[in-house]
Amino acid sequence: MKTSLRKCFGVQLACLGLWPILALAQSSDVAHEVAQNHEVAQNNVAQNLDACKAGRETCDVSKLSAAQSAEVALAAHARNVVNCRNGYESCDRSKLTEPETIALAVADHQRNVTDCADGMQSCDPAKLTSSEAREMAAAEQKRNLAACKNGVGACDRSKLTPAETEEANIAERQMNASDCKSGAGQCDHAQLTASQTKDATAAEDQRNAQNCANGWDECDHSKLTPLQAKQTAYSEHQRNFSACKDGQETCDYTQLTATETKMLSDAEHKRNYAACLKGYGYCDPSRLTVEEARTIHPGN
User: Which residues of 192-230 are buried (b: 16+ CB within 10 A; e: fewer)?
Assistant: First the structure.
């Protein structure tokens, strides 16, 4: 009986000894959970603040502190200023301060001046000053003259002065002469002077000779001079010889000279022997000489 009591008393003492350790572990778990919850709460607060400052629908204004509400108000004001500067519909001019309203008016005016100078449809001439309107008219006159001279853009000849009309006519004739000489664009031979016609004809003959010599399209053999015809024939013969050497289907063996035919035959004989000897490539044993046939090992 005494032994049982001693054992029970010993167990109680052991339990009492472990109690501080268990209590400490439980306390640590609670502290960790509290810290995690605090971190999650802080993240939620930060995310909500970012959403409110960016003007997103996920913003919950009721969760903002006084300091955060002030931050959000400043961000909203700055966003409105940007929207107004960019000409967005979301701009609320009534929320701008007086300096911001003045700065916006200056920016709007300058943007309109730039649009008018660039000939953009967004230009409002009625908002220009007299001096600006005169400058814009001069700029528009220059643009119209350039369009008439270059053939690019909308040209209104009715707005040209007599001197500008002559400038445009000269530029048009020069452009036509260039087109006729290069063979590009729309060439009107009727507008060429005698000198321009001579230059255009020479350039056209040279282009035709080059096309024929290179085997390109738009070659008219009937327009070649005797020298050009000779050069073209030589180029065509060389191209055909190269095609025959490379085994191309465009080769015309009837156009080869006796010397060229023998050269090709010798080259083909060497190629065939090498193929039979190495066992690699197309080999025709019937074309081997007796001596060559002896050097070929069975199985190659």
Answer: beeebeeebeeebeebbbeebbeeeeebeeeebeeebee
